Amino acid sequence: MLLAHYATLLSRTNKFHSLLTLLALAAFAVAQSSNDLDWVPFDRGQFNGNVALDEEGNVQLFWKTGNESSTFGVASRSSGYLALGFSETGAMTGADMAVVYKDQDDNLVFENRHAEGFVTPQVSQDQENNMRLQEGHQANGVTGFVFEKQNKADCLQTQVDVAKDAWQWFIYAFSDENTFSQHAPGNMGKEYVKLGTGKSVSLNEVRDIDDTKNFTIVQPELTVPTQTTTYCYTLHKMPAGNKNYLLGERPNESSELLHHLVLYACYGLPDEYMDMLGQEPNCDYETFSNPCSGFVTEWAPGMSGRTFEPGYGKPFGTDYYEYVMFETHYNNPEGLEGVKDTASYTFLYTDQPVATEIGTLTLGDIQVEGWFLEPGKELVAHSTVCTPECTDRWPSDGITAVSVFHHMHYRGRNARVQIIRDGKEITPLSSLRDFDYGYQFSKSLDSVKLLPGDKLITTCEYDTSNDTERVPGGLPSQAEMCFAWVDYYPANSVLACSHFDMGESAENPINGTAAICLESTAISPDLYHSDFLTSSFQNLSASGDTCPAENTVSGVSGQAAVLNTCPEADICFSVNVPEQSASSGTGDIYFQLSAPVTYSWVALAQGTMMSNANMFLMYSSADGRNVTLSPRTTSGHTMPTFNEAADVSLLEGSGISDGRMTANVRCGNCNRWDTGTMSLQGSNSDWLYAHHQGSPINSDDANAPILQHDRQGGFQWDLSRATGGSDTNPFTDAATTTTTTSPSAGEGQQSWERLSTQTQMRFVQVHGTLASLAFVAIFPTGAILVRLASFRGLVWTHGGLQVFGYAVFVAGAGLGIFIANGLDYLREPHAIIGMTLLGIFFFMPFLGLIHHKVYKKVQSRTLWSYGHILTGRIGVILGMINGGLGLQLAHARTSYVVAYGVFAGLMGVVYIGAIIFGEYKRAGRSSGKAAASASVYPESKRLDRDDSGSGSGSSSSHETAI
User: Fold this and answer.
1) Average pLDDT of 936-949?
2) In the prediction, which pLDDT does 827 show?
3) Phi, psi (degrees; rounded to nearest 5) at 201
4) Contact 88, 433 (CB under 8 A)
5) Three-class HEC string of 409-466
6) Crossing angle, helix 779-788 and helix 863-889, to 10 degrees?
7) CB 421, CB 451: distance < 8 Å
8) Are the C-beta atoms of 390 and 464 separated by less than 8 Å?
9) Is 3.40.50.360 the CATH classification of the domain at 358-538?
């Protein structure tokens, strides 16, 4: 994990502080001298806000917010694509992006894209309502454009609201190439920008403030334990004074094993803990009980320094707290040894009064342990309640929240804090979608008012789809947490508010779930019964989904529900199942294929692999103005041929327009075809897609020859979400409701699909080359040597060659498994044989050693010998054959197949000939073995030779003659 690099800002002496001041003035002078924005290609006067997104000022953002929509302009000193993203967290995940580039015809293209993660952002289906291009430019080494974005996202989950009255994360990327692909290192960044005029108190940046002091809390150096989870604690005394104020905080560099650190305020610290002052860290966290419960600050991956606006500060001192507990959490899943760390945190403070005192309220599951998440769910929620009995202890005028820090672990996806006031839900305190563990931050709020008697519900949502067992809440990184730390003013005594599971026991004063309220003035937290833990309230809509409820099979005819997915940025597919078809399990379904005309053909198919799939190809018609629909099938990895049994028709709306091919298709028998079936009510129906980029086919022949695909993949559709409407064309129905989903491919397949076609081809070629070298060159050569050669050290030469051959094979097999997983070829004979040989050959060296040792004792072949020899010979021959199967699976060129066949055939003949010749020689020697042993070869001159050597292995034994 990366810590913010603020060490250079620390000043422990006046001299160093003066140096920093000079450096800051110099930097400011440079910035002023480069403030000329005449290079920006659009009228800057139409905006009322501007900020440089990068340190050099080469990427400039302009904005003007409005009631319904806002206008943005972005310009970069670059001559390729330029992308600006609206992000919840500063990460790519969930970002709503505006992208401009020039196509091959030098036309400017504007796209609204959405990033599901750190992958190529996909084209959003809402290209008009969400974002609209106003002007764009690319000339003289500058790219810039102006666009309008609606402030409130519509029902699509691919959009982000504009924080027009508060702070907004912007991410950007640019290139000198117009091909939209991964940016070069350094050609990207993020910036937290205040768009509106709302009141700001907490800033996610480091600022120097006049007449202030610094102090740093340092954990003494320790060696990080090798166990996965370690919590360490050190006690520290704060700067002296009755009343001081923290004004800013600056994290320092630390070990990459640091998961997070927390600083707790110690109110009424018991005397027995004073012995911890100045001592080594206490890392025996399983038996240590932290007596300090006030939250001061935390660092987690992604966080930068913070500074409060002038007039605000967090109080500390003898009137509040004098001591703090420094907690560091180390996550060492690999058990690394000898890693040393000295964690530290620097604060800016003053002993002068401030106008407004800030406090921190802890919400969420302060119990940490004792709760579990259901496994196998894309989204599962966990909530805790802060009850009115606790918030009643706030000042009568209430408090004002200025920032919130949401914290979860790796499965975290969304978080929110809801406000229930007088039994009704009002605007939430905070909502955060697309949480990313590596991009945590303190979210600035536009001064949210909280009143005594409010009920607060903190909810965290997690993705447990990769878990097979219940996920516990707990301290380890592999477990989960749910916290929301809220900074507010004016500070008061309430430190934490939540609920607690007391269990069931006769000794408990309260059984079951109890409300909890923790105050700085109390010795222990207050636990109590509360009716508000189970009271009803109006639920918010699900995170990221404000679409109307989708139609289900209820017997009531409604709008057609279309499910859309784009497995690649410019290729999209949609499906609809009419209500009647879903009810009966048979009947028509509708689907759409959409792709640019730069593709020769594009196919959508039902199934999990090419063989026996129900395919539908789209390519340009003879006149080049329409499309041809070609239903096809194949029994293997050969060119699919026309399927006469398919009941399909091309519908209205199909054709070629604006550079895209579209096929709207009705299929009457897609629930069952000759080689497969598909449930029309399936929640996980399997689909494939493939395409070939190149010249248009321009044919009306549904059986026209096609070139092999240059890319393919698979995904799943939840057809229950595509169910609705009557048996009509849903793609021309204005009342259709369309939902966009992300393709749910496996992780390995997603990794493969992220690679370019050229990279994929290189991987295939390297795999084939390495495997061929192993089985057609190295393994046979080692076996032939041991059959025909005779020299001292032959056994080690043989073994060394076979070990090297196996190493080459392992490298090739690793690539092969990655390729097969990405292409869903793991069930193909080529992949099965390859993985079988990989496993068997792993044991060959050990088998060879046993054979060698036993042979030296008994001077004849044993079961171990035959096992080693026969397995090697069969394995090498099978490996040669498997190379041919691999070429067939990859549809290799005929020249490659011929070259491999000739070379493998010649080596195979030599290999088999060497085996036969060796066995013939061995038979001759065996008949006269006794005489030869007695008179020809004295004991002291045994030859290091194997007359029964194997065809494979790493350390073959050698029959020796005396």
Assistant:
1) 38
2) 75
3) -125, -45
4) yes
5) CCCEEEEEEEEEECCEEEEEEEEECCCCCCCCCCEEEEEEEECCCCEEEEEEEECCCC
6) 140
7) yes
8) no
9) no
What distance in Å separates the CA atoms of residue 660 and residue 203, rounded to the nearest whole number? 46
Torsion of CA 542, 548, 552, 556, to 10 degrees: 150
Q: Report the distance separating Cα 293 and Cα 496, nearest Å.
A: 8
Nearest CA to 786 out of 850, 724, 872, 680 is that of 872
**Confidence at residue 270, expressed as pLDDT on a 0 to 100 scale:** 92
Per-residue pLDDT of 292-328, as tens digits, reads 989 999 999 888 889 999 999 999 999 999 999 999 9
Two tokens at 575?
């499906």
Q: What is the CATH number of domain 757-941?
A: 1.20.120.1770
Highest CATH level, class, for 561-745: mainly beta
CATH topology of domain 200-356: Jelly Rolls (2.60.120)
- Residues 684 and 765: their CA atoms lie apart, in Å, by 34
**The pairing of beta strand 737-741 with beta strand 561-568:** parallel
CB 615 within 8 A of CB 712: no
SS3 sequence, 157-197? CCCCCCCCCCEEEEEEEECCCCCCCCCCCCCEEEEEEECCC
What angle do helix axes 844-858 and 829-842 make, rounded to 10 degrees?
40
Tokens standing for residue 397: 């005028």
Eight-class DSSP state of 648: E
Which range among 444-458, 553-567, 742-756 has the greatest average pLDDT? 444-458
Q: Which two tokens stand for residue 268?
A: 């009424």
CA distances from 723 to 576, 588, 686, 706 (A): 6, 12, 16, 34
Per-residue confidence (pLDDT) for residue 894, from 0 to 100:
73
143 token code pair? 């790219």
CA distance 151 to 172: 19
Where do the structural domains in the chain lie, given as residue ranges? 37-198, 200-356, 358-538, 561-745, 757-941
Q: Following CA atoms 613, 616, 618, 621 in sequence, which dihedral angle do they give, to the nearest 10 degrees? A: 120
Q: Are 598 and 691 in contact (CB under 8 A)?
A: no
pLDDT at 139: 93
- pLDDT-based confidence at 560, cuts 50/70/90? confident
* Closest listed residue to residue 214, CA positions, set 516, 488, 12: 12
Contact 225, 283 (CB under 8 A): yes
For residues 146, 47, 188, 414, the Cα torsion angle rounded to the nearest 10 degrees is -90
By CB neighbour count within 10 A (0-12 exposed, 13-18 middle, 19+ buried), where does 316 fall? buried
Q: 406-435 in b/e burial notation, b at 16+ Cβ within 10 A?
A: bbbbebbbbbbbbbbeeeeeeeebbbbbbb
d(CA 357, CA 492): 9
Element at 591 (helix H, strand E): strand 589-596
Residue type, 830: H
**Higher-scoring residue by pLDDT: 89, 559:** 89
For the chain, how big is the Rg over CA atoms in Å? 35
Helix (DSSP H) and strand (DSSP E) numbers for the chain: 12, 52
Backbone dihedral angles phi then psi of residue 922, each to the nearest 5 degrees: -65, -40
- Identical topology for domains 561-745 and 757-941: no
Q: Alpha-carbon torsion 89, 314, 288, 339, what sign? A: positive
Write down the mean pLDDT value for the chain.
82
Cα dihedral across residues 490, 492, 495, 500: positive or negative = negative
Rounded to the nearest 10 degrees, what angle do helices 794-823 and 779-788 cross at? 160
- What's the CATH fold of domain 37-198? Immunoglobulin-like (2.60.40)
Cα angle at 911 between 906 and 915, to 5 degrees?
150
What digits encode the pLDDT tens for the residues 68-126? Answer: 889 999 999 999 999 999 998 888 888 889 999 998 888 999 998 888 777 677 787 66
